[in-house]
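Side project, low priority. Logging it here so it doesn't get lost.
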Amino acid sequence: MPGFKNGTRIARGLSNLGGVVIIDLMSEDDFLAATTEWPTDALVAAGEITTAIPLIVSYQGAARIKFDSSQCKVDSEMVGGLGYQGFKHKFSGKMAGNDKAQVMAVQSFRNRPAVCIATMPDGTRQVLGTFLNPLTIKGNWTTGDANGEKQYEVTGEMENPCAFTPPTLATAITYALLP
């Protein structure tokens, strides 16, 4: 197709696996002291982050939140006037029930902004926020009005926009959440 760049078609069934199944939260305390920013514009320019996350060896602050299929989503909104535009990353998800470990993970990020890694059903991982411009995490609990309604909602949103949409984290990049 003339005029289209990178217009390759993704195979049916893989092209729209929506939603997020895991959100990993990492606070500024989890990053190396020498970290000035991550990810940077230079890391994102290639379309995929292929360098290691600069986490301290014994970081303990990270948390993992798991969602049922189709219960969490990531958004990136372009905001600002012409010449000053940027992207605000955010996520929102709902969990059934009142899983104590999940609720405590969210509560541990009260007043602690986070860089988030969202894992999609197909295993693709997107980075939300940056070290200098993290997401504010919020948890909202409700009993719901009827059987089957979700009871715990988790959201994260950037206060200020950054220069890029949520970049992909290369599959070769690994990290482990410590207990």
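Brief comment: Helices lie at 41-44, 100-107.
Revisit when time allows.
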